[in-house]
Amino acid sequence: MARAAVKKIETSTSLLEAAKKVLRRAGYAGLSTREVAAEAAVPLSQIHYHFGSKQNMVLELFEYLNAQLLDRQNRLFEDPSLKLSEQWSRACDYLDEDIASGYVRVLQELIAVSWHDAEVAKVIRAGLMGWIDLIVGVARRTEQMIGPLGPFSAEEVGAIAASSFIGGESLFLLGLEKKGSPIRASLRRVGDLIRIAEGSSPEKG
Hints:
The protein is mainly alpha-helical. The chain has 2 domains: 1-52, Arc Repressor Mutant, subunit A (Orthogonal Bundle); 55-198, Tetracycline Repressor, domain 2. The chain has helices spanning 3-30, 33-40, 45-50, 54-77, 84-101, 103-114, 118-146, 154-173, 183-198. The longest helix has 29 residues, at 118-146. It starts with a helix and ends in a 7-residue tail after the last helix.
């Protein structure tokens, strides 16, 4: 790859990392191209050169982060050394990491924007369907190993899991855990149900 092309990719990545920090700190409404340029220590013109607009920058940020995390999740659920219950527990650990990293904030901010912006909605739908398709694939493999998943189809399991995590993220950001709602703990309890199906004892705690 030519040196100029490598430099362009490095600058784009630097800008996306800067945008993530600003968005986490200030939210979508407080995000500005000027703040991102300052965070990345580059001229403002670099934002327009690489992305064209604030919206394009944020959408590229979402796709950048989403691709990394989907790859991580695919590796997790394709690991033959882990039971499904262990994979679920690790997925809950990843949720904690994603909250801390700012990804959850980025996603939820963009979901809110997508309610009134069709272009943003198109990108967010595609990104979320990647997660749903992953879960549906896991459910289908589980069906092959243990038989029917009760009254649920693989697609319904995908919808339930996605709704639980996406909804849980939203409630967490709203501060409901601080009000006593055990959002993340309840997600971990699903792992206990999986352990029972596997013939193992539920985790304590």
